Amino acid sequence: MESNLAKELNGKFNPIVLIKTDEEPKNAIGPKSREGNCIMPFIAQVIVNGKTAVFSRNKCTCAGAFTGFGFGSGYTLQEYGLDIYNPFLSLGLKVAKDKEAYKKFVESTPERIRPMFEGGERIYDSYERCNNFLTNENYIYDNDEEFVVFKPLSEVIEGESPSNVIFTVNRLEFSALNHLFGAISNELNYCMTPQASACQAIGNQVFYQAEQDKPKAVLGLLDIASIQHIKRWIPDDYITYSIPWDLYLKLEEASKDDSVFQGYVWNSIKKDKK
């Protein structure tokens, strides 16, 4: 489908969508099993190269993504439970309740990134704070559909109903989206930056916003690990700006007339960039 909003932004990267479906697309990239590492390199290839990526409960390699894409709680359903994920996401071996079990887990990881697992990702400052987030504060969904598919917004066809739209933007493009949203909103704050992994910031965090009376945009690519995983494809100064489908449709319509994109400042910036 055509997008006036994408056309006006004219960014380095075109927007993509998340679609829940029971149909597995042909020739899609994605994990082959539950074994592996971060899934964000697959998402990066959708953003940069226009690929299609597909994930399912049996083909999702990361507990964070398992949760983020709506397949249930990856932290309790996958092989390693909270006794492993709580120390991994906080201070590692130092705070592990079962140090021998955690050592065994660390030894099973690739040697080149083993120090990260041993010392923890430092997303939380304690085992207990991490446990509270994973068990009480994170949004857990259990999709009826079998697959979650990411593909370019431009490839959405009639009859498809995406759940989320994801823009990958620099500071200027984010400013334009923020202005556009602010112009049609009566709220003071219309975007949020959750303490969440990059995959959750384009997934379940947006699912939750879709359920709210006044949904917000969700900013992502703000966790250090994801930046490292996708630096081959996406520069460090880009973030994701993700919104529910219905909110995207409102912004799309708002972008067409009397918006920031038709104003003097935006057009002056565009002229200077040429």
Classify the helix fraction into a percent range: 40-55%
The quaternary organization reads as: single chain
Rg for CA atoms: 19 Å
Shape: globular
Secondary structure category? alpha+beta
- Biggest sheet strand line-up: 2-3-1-4-7-6-5
Structurally, the number of domains stands at: 1
Q: Could you give a short account of the major beta sheet? A: 7 strands, mixed
Unreliable segments (pLDDT under 50, ≥5 consecutive)? none
Q: Count the strands?
A: 7
Polypeptide structure, described:
By secondary structure, this protein is an alpha+beta fold. The protein has one domain (4-73, 138-264). Helix content is 41%, strand content 12%. The protein has 14 helices and seven strands. It has helices at 4-9, 40-49, 63-68, 74-77, 82-89, 99-107, 114-119, 127-137, 171-183, 198-201, 204-210, 224-230, 245-254, 264-273; strands spanning 16-21, 53-56, 147-152, 164-169, 191-192, 217-220, 239-244. It has a seven-stranded mixed sheet with strand order 2-3-1-4-7-6-5. α5 (82-89) crosses α8 (127-137). The two termini are 27 Å apart. The model has no long low-confidence stretch (mean pLDDT 93).
